[in-house]
Batch of 2 targets.
Target 1
Amino acid sequence: MRVLGVDPGLTRCGVGVVEGVPGRPCRMVAYHVVQTDPGAELPDRLLLLDQRLTALVAEHRPDAVAVERVFSQHNVRTVMGTAQASAVAILAGARAGLPVRTYTPSEVKAAVTGSGQADKAQMTAMVTRLLRLDSPPRPADAADALALAICHVWRGGTHDRLAAAQRAARTGGNR
């Protein structure tokens, strides 16, 4: 399974692509950071983000897209930009006809480190170790995106297969 993970952000949006199967080590395919100019108009920033994410989905041909679920922060302006970037990422996956799943930061931390309370340094260290990289992915947005992709391979892939089996059972039972 190939998964494109997205750590949404309006100024810096991390994108990580991994391949793997549940219960086995994953392999990093690539990572990117899409940047937009904070001084640019919002519609232009969202359009650039959409174009880059759409191009990355086309380039890497993932089987699924995993996006970090926006959580409540104290800074409403930051939350709004993150939510808008998240929506663009979800749309890019949906437009390509891919399954899209969202994960909370604590779900990703628990999947990758075993603790939902892990800090950024622990996450980056585990991503580096799990993907057997020579050096940590930089910036942290890239490491977070790779962690999202790993989380989906290990947790979401199983969930998607179970859901598909349930759909097939319902469809077969309705004939």
Target 2
Amino acid sequence: MASEESDSPGANDFERLARRYLDLWQSQLSGLATDQALTEQIARLFAAANAQMAAVLQAHQGASHAATASGTAPAAAASQHGADDLGELRKRLAALEARVAELEARRDRP
């Protein structure tokens, strides 16, 4: 009858197997790294994936920041009036400047 220790691999056997496994992976990766076309293609793939993930994260952070920063729902989409909007913006800005000037004048009076 054989002892249990001889039936199961020892710690040295596991270490040898682990080293062999890592050596094989290192050999495979080294071989792939020498293929310039494959390396460039993988780099482009990772760059595209990184760009898409960055865009998704920015969109998610922007949406959650807009909703939580003010405690209200995000603003509605801007209207599409083009040059008309610019003229309206100028009018509103002029009105605001006039109001600020009036408030400053009141504040400076005794």
